[in-house]
Amino acid sequence: MPGKICHQLSKPPIFIVGLHRSGSTLWHNLISMCPGVMRLTDPRFLSEGRHKDFRYFLQTQVGNLSIDENVDRMVEMCFARKNLPGLDSTFWRFENIEAAENPELKKTISDRIKQSDRSLGAIARIFLEEITRFGGYERPCVKFPVDLGHIPKLVDWFPECRIMHITRDPRAMAMSKTNDPFGTALRVAEHPRMARLIRRTMIWFVIVQYRWTARVHVKYKDLPNYRLFRYEDLLAAPEKILRNLCEFIGADFSEDMLSPEKGRHEHQLSSLTGRRQKSFDATAAIRWQSVISPIDRWIITKLTKRSMKTLGYDPDTHPIFSVDQQRLPSDSTEVAFAD
Questions:
Q1: d(CA 194, CA 248)
Q2: Which are the contacts of 51, defined by CB distance < 8 A and separation ≥ 6?
Q3: Rg, the chain, Cα only
Q4: Is 13 exposed, middle or buried (0-12, 13-18, 19+ CB in 10 A)?
Q5: Within 13 A of 142's CA, how many CA atoms are on the CB side?
Q6: 227-258: per-residue pLDDT in tens?
Q7: By the 8 A CB rule, do 46 and 153 touch?
Q8: Structure letter (DSSP) for residue 190
């Protein structure tokens, strides 16, 4: 590339954080409809302790980054698409990212890392900035990471970033988690005699995690680059919430955002209907009601009601519950729940 290159992106990155099964894919799809936004999946530069993340890759595969040759080798390995430990997330497959084929991208990333302090934060920033810039976009939107505990690191690494904390009714997340076809359902298939215990454990896991997210929100709610968004609010009043979102991230609202089926789709299959829901459907927020048992509903509500209030969600009077119940599936015995 001729001439002097400006590495600073024109707009700050957007990060989506929140618990699993809280609707992050829908938010991700919507934001990627904004002009100049590049949709990137979680690169696991940071992750929960039980996951092999980018730090694990550096420790086990790369070695001392103060050596220039190791920096070059690291970048080559990152673009090799070999599913190495710590590089096994979707991000490192570079699906639909044509810029990843450009050899100049790898050279630029290597050169910038060598000129930096070679810290994890610098590496994360350089990768995201250069992949976005070479892709012809102004800013990335990354589900990075799912774990809310890394908000301080994100602010430290990207001081001007926008952090979206997304949340959802914990009863919906619990029902989704207990029937996740790529998680819980696999464990149940492996250990059918423990099915009841496995599902019960998932419910308690969601309860504990949800209460923790409420505490996280209280801690960071006054940060200017942090804002909470609720899945049910989006489906109950799409235009209002999307305008608020665009104001927060500094993007122009487009009427096309009200028709997400026009954009790029990375939707998971609905665990209740088995279909990909591309357009806004308010019933998606309350389908959990048709599969939850009375005792599970009582337990989850009882143990998370205070946290729901902290997160600004009323489990009794939210407008989403005025949706026509006749539109919900009537037979929940033959479907799984993975919304």
A1: 45
A2: 44
A3: 21
A4: buried
A5: 25
A6: 999 999 999 999 999 999 999 999 999 899 99
A7: yes
A8: H
